[in-house]
Specification:
Elements lengths: L1 E5 L8 E13 L1 H4 L6 H4 L18 E5 L13 E5 L7 H7 L3 E9 L15 E3 L2 E8 L7 H7 L2 H4 L7 H11 L12 H21 L7 E7 L4 E5 L12 E5 L1 E6 L2 E5 L7 E5 L11 E2 L4 E5 L5 E7 L14 H6 L26 E3 L2 E2 L1
Parallel strand pairs: 1-2, 16-17, 16-18
Antiparallel strand pairs: 1-5, 1-13, 2-5, 2-13, 3-4, 3-5, 6-7, 7-8, 8-9, 9-15, 10-13, 10-14, 11-12, 15-16
Helix pairs in contact: 4-6, 6-7
InterPro entries: EgtC-like, Gamma-glu_amide_hydrolase, GATase_2_dom, Ntn_hydrolases_N
GO cellular component, one term: glutathione hydrolase complex
Keywords: Glutamine amidotransferase, Hydrolase
C-alpha cells in the first residue's frame, strides 16, 4: 500500500500519503525525516495498512510543494521531486528536506500495484497549478480504462505519461474542471464537485463492466490554496484505507524524533492529513470516517462531507478498526506528556470540533 502525507487497499492499499497546509511554511524535514513515525519511516514501518503481506513501501516516492511567495517568473505550479529509490535510502530527499520550506506539501511513498517502476508512475502529479495523489486502487482497472479514455477531452487524452490507474483518475478529475489550466485559484466547491463526479464515473463504469471487487479511492488534490481529500471504498461492508487528520497552531519537536501538535488558540494554523499519524500522541489525531470527503479551505477551515451514494453506511464506525488494534499499533497518548495518563479513546471515536459537516451525493 502507498502511504500518503498531506500537510495541506485489498491488493491496492500499498501507499502512504501525507498533506500539510499551514498559515506559515514548514521545513519538509519536519514531515519527512525527523518524526519517529515520519512518512519515510512509514514506508518500512506501516502499522495501519490493510494488506500486511507487503509491509514495505519501497517502490519510489514523491514530494510536491508550492512556493511560499508568488513569483511571476516561477508561476503558480507546484514543484515535484520523485524517485524510484526507497524514500529511506535517498540522500537527495534528506538534503532538500532540510532546505525547503512550504505552506502546502504533498508526500507519497509507493508500493507498486500497477505500472512499471518508473518516475512517471510516482505520485504526485501536476497539471497547471493542480496537484494530485492517490492511495488505493481502481479495482480491475483494465475493464474500465477504455471507457475512461473515451470520456477525456482532446487536451487531456495524451496527458497521462505513466501507466497507473491513479494518473488516469487524475485525468478524469481534470475533465470535470471547467478550465484546469487556469492560473487562477479554484474554489474548494469546484474541486469537491469534480472529485465527487470522478468517483461517480468510476463506480458507474465499474458496475457496467461487472467489476466484482471494491475500489479504494483515497484521493487528494490541491491548487495550492484549497485541499480536497477522500477516504472511500466502493463497498458498504469493507474497510477503506486508513486516513487521519490533525489540526493545531504549531507542530513542534519536544524531544528528538517526538512531535506534538499544539492547540494554543481557537483557530487552527496547521492542518495535516496522513495515512497514519505522524506522532504517537493519540490526542493529536482523529480518524476520517470511511466514505467521507474532507475540504481544507483557503482560510484553514476543515469541512467534512459524508459521501451519499449506494455505498454510504449510516454507521461508518462499524467498519473502523477495533480500538485494541490501534493501541497495539502503538498510537497511544504518552503518559509522560499527560497527567491523566494514557488515553483510552481511539482516534475515530473522537468528534471533530473544528469542522462542520454536510451530506453530499456522489
Amino acid at each position: 500500500m502507498c502511504r500518503l502525507l498531506g500537510m495541506v487497499i485489498s491488493v491496492g492499499i500499498r501507499s502512504n500519503i501525507a498533506v500539510y497546509k499551514g498559515s506559515e511554511p514548514i521545513l519538509l524535514s519536519h514531515l519527512f525525516t525527523r518524526p519517529a513515525h515520519s512518512i519515510i519511516n512509514q514506508a518500512f514501518d506501516s502499522r495501519l495498512r490493510l494488506d500486511l503481506n507487503t509491509p514495505i513501501n519501497g517502490d519510489g516516492f514523491g514530494v510536491g510543494w508550492y512556493d511560499s511567495v508568488t513569483d511571476s517568473e516561477l508561476g503558480q505550479a507546484p514543484c515535484i521531486f520523485t524517485s524510484v529509490t526507497p524514500a529511506w535510502n535517498n540522500i537527495n530527499l534528506r538534503r532538500i528536506a532540510e532546505k525547503i520550506k512550504s505552506p502546502l506539501i504533498f508526500g507519497h511513498v509507493r508500493a507498486s500495484t500497477a505500472g512499471a517502476l518508473s518516475e512517471t508512475n510516482c505520485h504526485p502529479w501536476r497539471y497547471g497549478r493542480l496537484m494530485w495523489m492517490h492511495n488505493g486502487q481502481i479495482s480491475q482497472f483494465a475493464k474500465i480504462k477504455r471507457r475512461l479514455l473515451a470520456a477525456l477531452p482532446e487536451p487531456l487524452f495524451l496527458f497521462p505519461q505513466g501507466h497507473t490507474d491513479s494518473e488516469f483518475a487524475f485525468a478524469l478529475f481534470l475533465s470535470h474542471i471547467k478550465d484546469p489550466k487556469s492560473s487562477d485559484e479554484f474554489s474548494y466547491q469546484e474541486l469537491k464537485d469534480a472529485m465527487l463526479q470522478t468517483i461517480r464515473d468510476i463506480n458507474t463504469w465499474s458496475k457496467e463492466a461487472g467489476v466484482d471487487e471494491p475500489s479504494l479511492l483515497n484521493f487528494c488534490v490541491t491548487d495550492g490554496k484549497s485541499v480536497v481529500c477522500t477516504r472511500y471504498v466502493s463497498s458498504k461492508t469493507d474497510e477503506a484505507a486508513s486516513l487521519f487528520f490533525s489540526t493545531g497552531t504549531s507542530f513542534y519537536e519536544h524531544s528528538k524524533g517526538e512531535y506534538r501538535m499544539v492547540k494554543a488558540g481557537r483557530r487552527q494554523k496547521i492542518v495535516m492529513i496522513a495515512s497514519e499519524p505522524l506522532t504517537f500522541e493519540q490526542a493529536d489525531w482523529m480518524e476520517i470516517p470511511s466514505n467521507t470527503l474532507v475540504c481544507i479551505t483557503p482560510n484553514m477551515n476543515v469541512l467534512q462531507y459524508p459521501i451519499m451514494d449506494e455505498f454510504h453506511n449510516a454507521c461508518p464506525e462499524t467498519l473502523a478498526r477495533n480500538p485494541d488494534f490501534v493501541l497495539r499499533a502503538g498510537f497511544h497518548t504518552s503518559s509522560s506528556l499527560t497527567e491523566a495518563g494514557p488515553s483510552t479513546t481511539v482516534p475515530h471515536r473522537r468528534q471533530m470540533s473544528s469542522s462542520s459537516s454536510a451530506q453530499v451525493s456522489a
